[in-house]
What we know:
The chain has 16 helices and 21 strands. The chain is an alpha/beta fold. It has three domains: 2-95 and 216-280, Adenylosuccinate Synthetase, Chain A, domain 1, CATH 3.40.440; 101-210, Adenylosuccinate Synthetase, subunit A, domain 2 (Orthogonal Bundle); 284-453, Adenylosuccinate Synthetase, subunit A, domain 3 (Adenylosuccinate Synthetase, Chain A, domain 3), CATH 3.90.170.10. A hairpin with a 7-residue loop joins strand 20 (446-450) and strand 21 (458-460). Helix 3 crosses helix 4 and helix 6 (152-173) crosses helix 8. The protein is globular.
Amino acid sequence: MTVTIVxxxxxxxxxxxxxxxxxxxxxxxxxxxxxxxxxxxVVEGGEEYKLSLVPSGAIRGKVGLLGNGCVVNPRTLFxxxxxxxxxxxxPDIRVAERAHVILPYHRVLDGIEEDAKSEGDxxxxxxxxxxxxxYEDKAGRRGVRIGxxxxxxVLRERLEYVVPTKRALAEDVFGLDLEAAGETDSGIDxxxxxxxxxxxxxxxxxxxxxxEEGMTVDAGTYxxxxxxxxxxxxxxxxxxxxxxxxHGTYPFVTSSNPTAGGACTGTGLGPTTVGSGDVIGIVKAxxxxxxxxxxxxxxxxxxxxxxxxDGTETxxxxxxxxxxxxxxxxYGTVTGRPRRVGWLDMPVLRHAARASGFTGIVVNHVDTxxxxxxxRVAHSYTLDGEEQFTVPPTTERWGDCEPNxxxxxxxxxxxxxxxxxxxxxxxxxxxxxxxxxxxxxxDTPVYAIGIGPGREETIVRHRxx
Length: 465
């Protein structure tokens, strides 16, 4: 049986916690796209684990698989595995041989390309971890795959083909003096990042460790055999629908497909297999995002991310944004930078539900809104004098949308610990009205409600496995 976990908004919806919650009944948790730009926080036994590449199910001792749709930085992978082992865990991680490898030059180029874009209005707010450049090489048929690390002769051939091109791009297009550049802020030796011999030695060693620990697999075959053997497989998406390269706010998007279709292409299983189980959309009870681009329901702003915002504005919206940001811990798991926050946006959720075919939703951070006496939801937009119920196909037109709000009573001063113990019926009536509105608008049941960061602080109404 399969279950697919999809972010419904701009990422940071709490997917990792839900993978952990439902993961007890899963045997394999497979990530199907993205790289170490994904931030997942899991709380287990009062301890917090922050993961960026290892699938969240590893905290529960499940097999974690990085599918062929992922891009993998071996340095990050082994750092996370070693860190978990130091904390007493023994993660069982498999990596698709068809997954592409993030190399140091990808990270260097990511940084200088983003700096170049910042001079105009195309800065995507990337994490600088080389994700986009690696996917570019994948599409350009010049990438290095995990399977190549296992064969030194093939690895050498791949590097000798691609590295001169990358050197020329860095030196001739961006004017970078590789020998004088030193190290990046993240500690990458720039000269070594474009040196075939240095790259070959390091990544050959990574390949040897992958082989020694038996970590590499043919993802599609491995997962199909697991399902045929009666095992439960959970597909874990990173980022969110509005960051999908096809269905998000292009060009302010990631470089892969977080929507449910990505679970097919990113693992090697067909849509009849993925679609045979639940597809669960994870929803934050309000909206947040990291990076630039339109956000019609935004409250206040974040300097460098919110278009046209310089930080000099003060007033009720800025105060409310700060209040929600502090209550919800709205700072990036990977980057640490503040997230933009705003009211829940129903057109965004309708778009996500259509694109992935949700069979259920989980609503997180309900407790965060418990600081408010009144809250709003963008029920629709007005665009060119007409009411719109979903997101326009172009980002520019989305930026022209004006939200039409509905007001809801708040649920301040709630005893969330007691509610977690008692269950759904103990929720404030105003909270239930909010959740029932979501169910009606998306024609999708609420499977669970997150009222705190811990596993025991989620009210479960339905278990998909």
